Amino acid sequence: MLIISTDKGLCGALNTNLFREATNFDPAKTSFMVTGKKARQFIARTKRELLADFELKDSPSFVEAKPISKFCMEKFLRREVDKVSVLYTHFINTINQRTVVQTLLPISSFDLPKGEGAQADTKGVDPMIGYIFEPSAEVVLDSVLPYYLSYQVFQMILDARASEHSARMVAMKNATDNANQFIKDLTLEYNKMRQASITTELLEIATAQMALAG
Fold first, then answer.
1. Which of 27, 124, 163, 184 is the one with CA 20 to 30 A from 98?
2. What pTM does this model have?
3. Is 180 part of a structural domain of the chain?
4. Residue 187 maps to a domain
């Protein structure tokens, strides 16, 4: 399991939702790789097995995603793990972000786009008919798949970063609104106490004058 978390806090419940989902996986059967200080602290706190910790910049590049995908692929090809999943936050919009578990390895099957004039019913037909691979399909696949996995990981990292920035923006806006409302309440309370104090002083002065006059 690769967990993509944040390095900093103040982003609402984003990391909390991630780690709540991570607790659903049996620690005896699951090893973890992480990006982000918060995930590293979570693994250390819950005493789970940590295989690797990858550092990412604030603005991650594709080059930083390649070591992550390479490490996952090597673990899978050596049969040290039978599955590699990624736990990250999927960006829906500024308000909504959803925790997602996506399988990275093994690669799921996908449909090839149909060319012009292709028949609607293609059952039983080899999808590779009409394609020519040089030097061979195996060599081309061996070269393309690592890039495909790297781009998959990079896309998830960017998705998680977008979710982080949106969650932090919303959290800071809510904090600012709450602080402004708190200031208004305190100002109102202060003005009430000040008015009560002035009224009390005026009553004392008036009472003293009446006593002197009497």
1. 27
2. 0.77
3. no
4. no
Host domain of residue 76: 2-108+126-172
Sheet with 32-35, side-by-side order of all strands: 50-54, 32-35, 2-4, 84-91, 97-105
16 assigned to some structural domain? yes
Residue pair 7/163 in contact (Cβ under 8 Å)? The answer is no
Q: What is the pLDDT along the chain (214 residues), one digit of tens a residue?
A: 999 999 998 898 999 999 999 999 999 999 999 999 999 999 999 999 999 999 998 889 999 999 999 999 999 999 999 999 999 999 999 889 999 999 999 987 655 555 444 444 555 666 667 778 888 878 888 888 899 999 999 999 999 999 999 999 999 999 999 999 999 999 999 999 999 999 998 888 888 888 777 6
The CA-based angle 63-151-162, given to 5 degrees, is 85
Q: Which residue carries 């006593």 as its tokens?
A: 211
- The domain that holds 17 is classified in CATH as 3.40.1380.10
E strand map for 59-154: 84-91, 97-105
* CA 164 and chain centroid, separation: 6
What does the longest C-alpha to C-alpha distance in the chain come to?
Answer: 117
In a domain, 179, yes or no: no
